[in-house]
Amino acid sequence: MDATAIVRITERVLARLDLLNSARERALAETRQITRLSANAVRAVHRGEFAEAGALLEEARRIKEALTAHLADYPAIYWSGYVQDAHKEYAEASLTLALVAGRPIPSPETLQVEDAVYLNALGEACGELRRHILDLIRAGDLARAETVLAVMDEIYGVLVQVDYPDAVTNGLRRTTDMVRGVLERTRGDLTLAVEQQKLSDALAQARRAVGLGEPGQPS
């Protein structure tokens, strides 16, 4: 029995495992950064701070691309759930910025994310679009809210046509079900707001017709 050969072989194995563990630790730390930057970018979008959101996403993109290059020799880590989840958060934030700011929609190739990641991110961006629509309703901008709702409807129409196993789409069916629920609730909220606005306009018109003026004003 060649004990020396066993030592040499196991030393190489342990060296490779050490590199694998270092790559994993880096991936864990940097995916957390990507997720945090993406979440902050979404918050900036809802505040209307599009330049700030863009700067945060640029930093997230830089970290993501460097990590992807580093993991080229570690496909098991690259394809792990937490790395792809961070990519999804980045893609969702990027899509949210584009949709809310009225910019061109980035493609999977532009964002450098996998197709399944992109489709799930597109679906989850609908949750942020709902929040945007509710902000628009509060601001009284119902026309813009209807435009954004049409975008949500278009996204759902695309996602519902995707018919592949969950192993291929990373659970897109669940995301699509979520989008349907969000879309229905948002449509209901906007319909109610439109009807209330119509009623308010009709009352104001009636008051003017009888010379009462606007509510709160002296007759």
UniProtKB/TrEMBL annotation:
Single GO term (MF): sequence-specific DNA binding
CDD domains xref list: TRAX
Domain of life the protein comes from: Bacteria
Name of this protein: Translin family
